[in-house]
Design a protein that fits this description.
By secondary structure, this protein is mostly helical. Helices cover 66% and strands 7% of the residues. A three-stranded antiparallel sheet has the order 1-2-3, with helices on one face. The protein is globular and about 45 Å long.
Amino acid sequence: MTTFEALLCRGAFVDTKVLDGRWDLQEPICCIDIETHEADHGLLSSCLTHILSDFRSRNQIREGNKVVFRNIVRAILDFYPVYREIDTTVSECLVDPMFLSLGELISDADEKDIETAAELIIDHGSELMKMKPGKCDSFIVALRRHLCESDFKPVTRRLILQAIDLWTYKWDDEIMPFCIKQFHKPSLQLIKNSTEKSKAPSESRTKINESFV
């Protein structure tokens, strides 16, 4: 049973729009509403179990279906901040899988793998840098190599360049030159809005957006 199937079994609300790649944050594929005072820890525990199971089987999964493998990497990186808010100790079990799976996604990669990796670094690179800066540096070097040597579409090259620029300025909007911000303006605004939303005071109901393709 995959993580997505586990969510269905537990009755989570699922939007059936299935996308290959980055989900639309305005129309999330899967939304789990968690009461701050009465969170469904059973559901979250079930998700964690399936995510770790998928991680252990990632090599076989990648051989059979690269789309599923990319989504496993997404799930690991997206679930980490969720578990960190609930239980810092439990969330530590996702740290090594995050870095290992992201590194493997970039290795022996096709264009969709690199596109996904760039998106994940754009979204989560700030936290990755705080945890293991050397590893994050190696991801950026690998993306630079693909930017120079691979015949990718413009949209993929722009994602790689954005990840590199964010790394260069440490995801700090204050020190990034205006011209660079203007170049990446639509994507950076999306990141900024997402960050501001995450810092907003908790309401009685917190919506956590997760995606499974």
